[in-house]
Amino acid sequence: MRMWSSGLGSEETALVLDFTKADFKREGDKVFITGVTLEPVAWEFKLTITKEDVPGLLHVMSSFPTLCWVARSITGAFVFVRDKFILRRMGRKAGESPGSEQ
Q1: What's the pTM?
Q2: Letter string b/e over residues 17-39, b meaning 16 or more CB atoms within 10 A of that residue's CB
Q3: pLDDT tens for each residue of 14-54
């Protein structure tokens, strides 16, 4: 996901968020998402989703442009399932083996 920040002065910067490597934690009626941006620099990001956000998220997810995009991009879901559940390599660096975790 790309998120734009204009908090660095007059320059607008695109931040690349990789949710496949983010940590999700549920506390009460909130979900906390933490991770690190990939570009332009490695910055930590934190998101909080509450039950008040659900209607807006459902509205975005069920919109016609989003559904068309999902239909065109569905192969990415199959790659995610293969990497996460079959090959169990999600979040690892290239060449890193499952036993090398610290």
Answers
A1: 0.56
A2: beeeebeeeeeeeeeeeebebee
A3: 677 777 788 899 999 999 998 888 777 777 888 899 999 99
